[in-house]
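> tool_call: predict_assembly(chains=two)
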Amino acid sequence: MTLTMLTAHALPASAECRCVLVDGRVLTITASRRPRANRADVKCAVAGAPAISERMQEVVRLARHTEPRFDSRDQVVLSMDIVPSAEERGWELAAVLADRKVRGLPPFAPATESSSAAAPDEAKLYADGWSDAWHLGRVTGQPSQAAVRAARHLASADQLFAGDDGSTAEAAQANITLISHLGALSGHADPSAAVSSARAWFPLHSGGINDTLSWVEVSVYPIDSAGVDEESTIAAPGLDLTVLNTLRQTLAAARHFDGKGLGRWRTVVRFGQPRFQGQSYQLALVMADRLARGREFVPRGRLIASGCSSAWHAGRVETVEGREPKLELILKQAASGDRVLLPQEWQAGLPEQYQNTLKARGASLACISQIGMI
Amino acid sequence: MGLFKRSRKQAVEISGLGSLLIARRLDDLRAAPVGSVVVQQKGERELVYCFHPGPYQVDLTPFAAAPEMGLRLRFVIEANPRVSQQRFDLYLFSEAGEELNLADFGEAVQGDVQHELAQGGLELPPCTSLDEWHAFRAGLNQLLYTRFGVTVDDCVPVDLGDSIDYAAALRARAAAIASAPAANVSVTAAIANVAVADASVPGLAAASAGLPAPDRAADAKALRRLFLELPVLSSGIRLLAIPPGTEIFQSHQAILQRLSLVVLSVGSMPSLEWSAPNQPLESAQQLRRIAQSQAAVVALDEGWSLLAQLQMQSPAQWPERADEADRVLANLEYHLAERRVAFAAVDAQPSERREPKL
């Protein structure tokens, strides 16, 4: 019974995604779902702008080529409340995300009854990005000045996804997530890029209301000269030296454990939110590194991890502080396909039904004492 | 049914059979090597194959994004005495051409496993626990038996780091990107051109200029698979032990009814090249029809995976699977209807169709 509720009926009938235009106006793209009934798969309605409507349909259709699951049963109708000027293209990502959200695709899993009852006024979604290769899932562009200004006034639960052409340093803001590829929404590497970057998420506990899941991204590129010091090939722009040193030691030790990790890669590490304290990001960092190097099974959704270690060279995972708030946050944020990794010590103290609740959401949990298989 | 029958004959050697070669089509029934099994499909044109029961070993990459993590699979081809037609025989008649190589077969298995993992039918998450591994193995065994008719003997995770170098693959990608910087631009330009052509010129005269020649064999192969496999899939679903309950019974019946209509639709599919008697169809529309019949085959594969899941499920999971069955059937019906019509809007499909499934 509950399973049917989750799969068939918990999908929203409509979803919204906003885009801040260059002149500061906020454009809202509304996507709604209805039975297909022999109509087109995507319909776009923008009053008085047939060219934009056509472009929107094309963008959404091309972006759907990156999805593994095809469903011919629904039609998605997209509409814009105001008409952007013809040169602006930042709304393209908003159209793609609205189309994904209304169909409950990761990371926008359908809300369960409990959470939708608790928060009827859900978090707002903003997007700003465009692409010339939507069929490959690439996203380019950068958040416009207007979007960055607007992002400062977002509520803590709101999110802004923006294209990433590598030129911007604005990612330091908490709720701006830069993506260069649609798979990055779930932390996956872009299969057509020469640099392999993977993301993993970790819970950042900062006193209740401001708790968030923050991401760490590891990008690797093959190195030419062998025999260099592993730690000197790892860079993390914008981090202070102590954090950088711990991070380098962590990665180098974990690669030593891996066996085939040393001396092959040049590495750049980025954080969604570079100002934090504590060591609990380490497990997420190590797992993102393994994913980026193509040496770990890939989760369907995001990888959410919390844990540290004093012996990464042995692959050991040790416990971290802040168990209760972190568990609560993970339960609130986990979506279908997500993989949650926690230290073995937390297993005994898990709340009753915690694992089952996650499972009902489509996420899975493992409490581990060691990285790698079994 | 008595349509298919096994017999043993003694004769010549076929090189590689039992190691690199799984099966080969025979022109002469008597030309089968010792130790191989001969299967025969009787019809207006008799098809005879001989295959070696194995064991075979093949390495798979379960995730395209993790090329250095592999699964080493050992399988055999075993006959199930309780069924009238072996699934592997059907696989041979339906999908094997002249011969069935181990490498090609491994690739087909890998594609199916990757697709299932991406859809969530199988789960192999990072840091897999022992219980999760057992669940994966059970699902994999069932999937490979239901879809390909092979019995998994053993499956272990392996480190493919010695044979596959991801760093080298990334270097090759970088070189490819550097040597073809204009590719993206040209795709965009092509899309823009098609959009313009569609808007200004009615019909497809402008768009069909640079199209590849329609591949009739691909369409025929897809329709042949649908024609041969759908009835067997349908009978597999009919034989399921379904949990009690009126609603479940009705949904089961509805699935069977829709499947038989799909079978009927495949059996009466119009030929590729004609829009009406003596009216040749333009090649853009032919290409569209081929794409649709191939998409229908993807839905057929999902149907086999679904059958494997239904065979293993607990009664509580039926409603969830019924929704999945509804999706698979809806996709089959949709693609076949699109294959049937002679004229429809042709999408501006980019040549690189999609990225590897994640």
